[in-house]
Amino acid sequence: MVFETHFDWYRSVFITSALILWAYKVTLDPTKPLDDMGFMTGTMPSVLPCTFEFEKRIPETELRSMMQYYPEIA
Hints:
Elements: H1 2-23, E1 24-28, E2 52-56, H2 60-67
Antiparallel strand pairs: 1-2
């Protein structure tokens, strides 16, 4: 029973991650430098080591027209 619960949780995280990577183009913010040693001090940094930009891959109008065939989801 415990294994099934954990497996369902991991599957949910996988599906959500796959949908985010499918729906958005994820890139590092070019205006802020990447601090690759940000978490190495052992404490939580006051400034996050990197920031991301999310750009839609599909325009909202096109996505809505695709989703009209699945009213239970929208």
